Each structure stands twice: as structure tokens, then as C-alpha cells.
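Dear support,

We are seeing what looks like truncated structure output for some complexes. This example has two components. We would appreciate it if you could run it in full and send us the complete C-alpha cell output so we can diff it against ours.
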Amino acid sequence: MRLLHAVMADIRFQIKQGFYLVYVIITAMYLIIMSFLPDDILAVALPLVVFSDPSVLGLFFIGGIILMEKGQGVLMVLVVSPLRSWEYILSKVISLAIVSVLAAIAITYFSYYPTVNWWLLLVSSILTSGIFTLLGIMINAGCNTVNQYMLKTIPYMLLFILPCFALLGFPYSELFTIIPSVAALKLMLGSFHGILWYEATALAVYLLGINLLLLKFTVRVFENKIVYQD
Amino acid sequence: MIQVENLNFTYKKTRKKAIQEMSFDVKEGEVFGFLGPSGAGKTTTQRLIIGLLRNYHGKIEVLGKERNQWGKDYYEHIGVAFDFPNLYTKLTAKENLQLIGAYYKNECEDPDKLLERVGLLPEKDVRVENFSKGMKMRLNFVRSIMHNPRLMFFDEPTSGLDPMNAHIIKEIILEQKKANKTIFLTTHNMTVAEQLCDRVAFIVEGKIVVIGSPKDLMIEHGKRIVNVEFRMNGNNHAKNFDLQNLGENLEFMNILKSAEIKTIHSCEATLEDIFIKLTGRNLV
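Here is the complete output from our reference environment:
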């Protein structure tokens, strides 16, 4: 029940702070760009755009959300309320996954791409969003300003986003699948280009495991750096 | 309600010994004032009891259980109002109360009633970003009591309030005390402490220097005299008389009978005087 209230509170906060409006504008911009692309380029660009939404954008959004909560002091109020740390974090994951899924569906649907596995798109969007939201919370735990957050985000972006380009033809790309973002992009590409069912299952299970591990680790970082400020 | 024994705490990062061998207790239904200058250790002690700092040495028993044995259920029983407003600025006053209230198992007070009590009902649907500091502080305060906690922590509850609104907050604190709630008040405002606290503790450099009821401390450290200002034979006069056998002091009795009394005061010390006397420091 508390978790549900927390998710509703987060959605309300994100709407009132204008995050949904930003999402709508970005999604509209993507759609306009997609409409000009020929089919062969769209086949590569669409999965990348849909993937960038919960990953790169998600990472910046969660940073902004938590910095705003810190700035308004409400994080301290939540810390001295019965809301558990894991509920606070999971509610951020759920609320941002909802926006990511909505944006992914909107961009894909209105790009009129012929073959889409919607279920796989849903699963890959949620799992990708989860990883990057948790990563963002972890990075943000020790930051007080946007600049600090941006600086701390750069190495993570390099580590998580750069290897994704391996999927675009690098000869040893399979090795990179161990990197969660690469596995997530592979699943996302699969929802557009097709993927063997057992490969999709393995990737989804792997990403789910990474999400759970990251959740556990993020709770610990959150308690150390925000609750107790050790 | 709260029992602290031989409490020691050192900040890990700065290695600053913030609390040293601190011992005190707070009884149920009591308003306990924690007084001291900035940096004395008031907030650190409060944060230790609230559960925002860990790795302390000594004992902090709250509501019958060692502090570090409590989980998040602890916050169902306590209410905290920090000395600065922590509110969702894009939400209205009522939305702020509803949003945080939803996290408690206890049924929360009707937000309208709470807002009316602190004079914010007409602004209940106004976004907090449009509130003055005083309005935010009042909203912050009622949010900390809305879930009917048994133990409350208020840090400078009247800071930034005009006298009328400060009076309302003080009235609410006394109402809570009447309802047998326990209040831990952190302040450097001696008047607030005098008016509200059953007992106060003076803290300097992480140590408690004295604990007692404001009245007892003021009498103990005051002068045992009464000061009278009066008008006699067309002139103003002021005179001090020893409290000892005052009723048998003929000069005093004569002034009472024949002069026009302007003022008459016993000369107990103020809490501020006592603080300066005991610590050699000002309460800034």
C-alpha cells in the first residue's frame, strides 16, 4: 500500500515539476525525425532511439528528480517517515519505467514500423529503465548539485553506453553482452528485428537479476549516503 | 520515554567528538528543552535519537527499545519538524499533508482541521512555492503531528513566525502535552523554553552542563530580592528589598501602604543569565 502511494506521489511530483511535459516534447521531436527517415535507416535508428529513452534520458531524469527532492528538503521528511528505503527507490524505478514504456510505445507505434514484438518491447523497456534509474540513484546519492551529478555520470555513461556500439558490427560483440546495457539493447533490438525465444529469455532473466542486484546495492548506498550520511 | 546514558558520538569524516558522556532522560508527557548555542551538539543529539546518525557509543533507549534495534516502524510513533521547511513546493498545502500522511498506518488528522488550526485553511489549495517562510513553517509543523505520534521532536518551532503565529504553535505544543504526548524541543530561544518546557538541559561542546525545571533554575540562580519602583512625594524611586522576612520589613510595608507603586518584581535570573553564568558563553 505504501509503495503504491509512493508511486502515485512520484508520478504527481514528476507531472507537477514538468518532467512529463519534457517527455512529451522529446517524444514528439523523435517522431518528427523518424518520419523523415527511409525504412532501412529507421530499422536501426528506431530501436536505438527507443533504447536511449529509458537509458540516457532516464539517467538524467532520475538525477534531476532526486536533486529537486533534495533541494526542497522532502528527502529528509521521507527519511523520517515509515516509508522504507527500498520502497522509495522501487517507486522511483516503477514511476520512471511507466513513462519509459509509454514513450517507447508512442514512438514505436507512430513510426509505423512493420514488425514489432510488443511484449518484448515492454519487457526490454522496463528492464532497461530499471537499470539506469537505479544507477542514477546510486550516482546521485553523493551529489548535491547538477554539475556534480553530470561529472559523476560521465564514467558510467562511457562504461554502459559506449560498448552498445559493439552491436553495430564490432567483431567481438558477443563478449560485451555481459555488460547490462548491451544485453538490454540486444533485447530491445530483438523486439524489432526478431530474436530466438531462448536468447530473449536468457537476456531477460539476466537483466532481471542485474536489476535485483542493483536494487539491493542501491538501497545500501542510499542508506549510507542519504539516510545516515556516513 | 527517552533514556540516554553515557552517550558518545564522533563524526567519522571530521573525527570531531560531537557528544561526550551525555546522560539524561525524558519522561512521558514532558516537554523537554535542549538548549545551547549553535554547534553545541543539540542537533547531533536530536539526530541520534531520531535515528539519522548511527555508530554511537552508550545507550539511547526510546519508547522502551534501544534506538538501533528499531526499524522503520519507529517513525509511526514519532513526529519530526526540522528547523527549515521541507515541503513539496509545487504541491498545495493540503496535497503536502495528504501525500506524506498516506505513508502512515495511523489514521491521520483531517488536513482541513490541521490547516485551520494554524490559520492556513484559506490557502489550502495554494501551491507552497507561493507561501511565506512563516506559512511554510506552520505547514511543516502540523505535518509533523498529523499522524498522532507519541513522541515529537521540534527544532526551533517558532523560528520565522510572527508573535501571533508563534503563540498558536506554542498553544498546540501545550495541547499535545496535555494529551500526554512527549515533546523534545531543540532551541536557543530562551523565552520559548521558559514558556513551554517542564525541564531544560543546557548543552555546550557536546556536554550537558545542567538539567532542571526553568522555574527552579531561575530561582536557584537569581537574587533573593524584590525590586519596587514607586512614586512618593512627587518623586520616582526604586528600591530593592531582601525576600527574607519581607512581610516584616517595615519600610517595604510602608511603601506598599502609602506610595504609588509603579512596578514590583522579584529578581529571579533569566535562563539566558543562567546559561552565560554556567558556561561563560552566549546563546548565539
